Amino acid sequence: MSDLRSPRVIIFKGFLFLLLGCLSAGLVVAEHPTLKVVVLLALAVWSFCRFYYFAFYVIQHYIDPNYKFSGLISVLRYLAESRTPR
Fold first, then answer.
1. Tens-place pLDDT, residues 13-51
2. 75 CB-near residues (< 8 Å, 6+ apart)
């Protein structure tokens, strides 16, 4: 499979992820419509977004600018190896 290069398709794919996330969160809240579930779901989503930012921006721009990650498994391998900044 080749890399996705079309800007229109990339944007469409991004909005599909947004739609999937909104639908999933909506279904969870509809299943258990309590303030506790809404807050915990929002906190989980926010935390995963911050980890993603950490994994693909902070490490590459502040810790080791020479290392390029190819995905979350690559990040986990990097962190497990305890590489020192170059």
1. 999 999 999 999 999 999 999 999 999 999 999 999 998
2. 55, 56, 59, 69
